[in-house]
Amino acid sequence: MMQVRIRYFAGLREAIGIEGEPLDVPTDATAAEVRALLGERYPALARLLPPCAVAVNRAYVAPDAPLHDGDEVVFIPPLGGG
């Protein structure tokens, strides 16, 4: 197991009421697997996470990007235009 730090922004933060948290994940976890774990943990996020971009350590990554112990993972909701 390893631990990553999850940060929540905008509607994601509003849906669950926290700004971030540590999350224990399998050693070979990917960003997509973290997305699935969070959707299971927080049903309110299950519908919000799929369209989100993902960043690891402040750089956008593909969903299949491998994670490492201590990484910061952020799911970024799509921006609405006006």
Structure characteristics:
82 residues; alpha+beta; Ubiquitin-like (UB roll); five-stranded mixed β-sheet; globular
Plain-language structure description:
- It contains three helices and five strands; from the N terminus they run E-H-E-H-H-E-E-E.
- The chain has helices at residues 10-16, 31-41, 43-46; strands at residues 2-7, 20-25, 53-56, 59-61, 72-76.
- It has one domain (2-76): Beta-grasp domain (Ubiquitin-like (UB roll), Roll).
- With 82 residues, it is α+β, with helices and mostly antiparallel strands.
- A five-stranded mixed β-sheet has the order 2-1-5-3-4.
- It is globular, with a radius of gyration of 12 Å.
- A hairpin with a 2-residue loop joins strand 3 (53-56) and strand 4 (59-61).
**Which residue ranges are poorly predicted, with pLDDT under 50 across at least 5 consecutive positions?**
none
CATH architecture descriptor name: Roll
Largest sheet: 5 strands, mixed
Count of structural domains = 1
DSSP, total strands: 5
Per-chain topology:
Blueprint: E1 2-7, H1 10-16, E2 20-25, H2 31-41, H3 43-46, E3 53-56, E4 59-61, E5 72-76
Parallel strand pairs: 1-5
Antiparallel strand pairs: 1-2, 3-4, 3-5
Briefly say what this structure is:
By secondary structure, the chain is of the alpha+beta class. 27% of the residues lie in helices and 29% in strands.
